[in-house]
Amino acid sequence: MTPVQLVRSPAPPPPAPAPWPTTNWLVVAPLVAIGLGILITVHVRWWRSCRYSDSERAFRRLASAMRLHAGFRVLARELADAHGRATPAALLLSDAAFREAALKLDPEPGSARARTLHRWAAARGV
Fold first, then answer.
1. Which residues, including other chains, have CB under 8 Å from residue 48's CB and lie 6 or more apart?
2. If DSSP codes are grouped into helix, strand and coil, which group holds residue 21?
3. Which of 21, 53, 102, 114 could cysteine-pair with 107, CB 3.0–4.6 Å?
4. How far is the C-alpha of 38 from the C-alpha of 70, rounded, in Å?
5. Are 88 and 44 in contact (CB under 8 A)?
6. pLDDT: is 8 or 116 the higher one?
7. Buried residues in 47-82 as b, exposed as e (16+ CB within 10 A)
8. In terms of DSSP H, where are the helices of 52-69?
9. Which alpha helices (DSSP H) does 1-126 contain, by range?
């Protein structure tokens, strides 16, 4: 039997090509982050639009146009509940409905709700 001689190749074989191009994450990562941000924004806006009824959406637009802060917005919802028939948007537009609802709401004297209600009534001249 003769010994087996190992044959040394002149150079190692070239590396196999990747099945897909290599990714430059410094370029792709910001694009992925921007895309995710857009998707999240669109999803949240869709979820909020489904959550509010048409009257609630109208009220939010009116309150935004009238530049009312959140205390007035919460109070308008409570006034609408106290009134029973009027929507929050109607209370923003109708002084008579506002006066009727304010009489029915009857907040505790000195509370934040009472101060906000009196400040709003004074601003509207009711």
1. none
2. coil
3. 114
4. 27
5. no
6. 116
7. eeeeeeeeeeebbbebbeeeebeeebbebbeebbeb
8. 54-65
9. 25-51, 54-65, 70-83, 88-93, 95-105, 112-124
Q: State pLDDT tens for residues 22-63.
A: 778 888 999 999 999 999 999 999 988 888 777 778 787 877
Does 11 have pLDDT greater than 70? yes
DSSP annotation of 106: -
Does residue 4 register a pLDDT over 80? no
Q: Is the dihedral of CA 82, 74, 106, 101 positive or negative?
A: negative
For the chain, give the number of residues: 126
Whole-model pTM over 0.85 = no
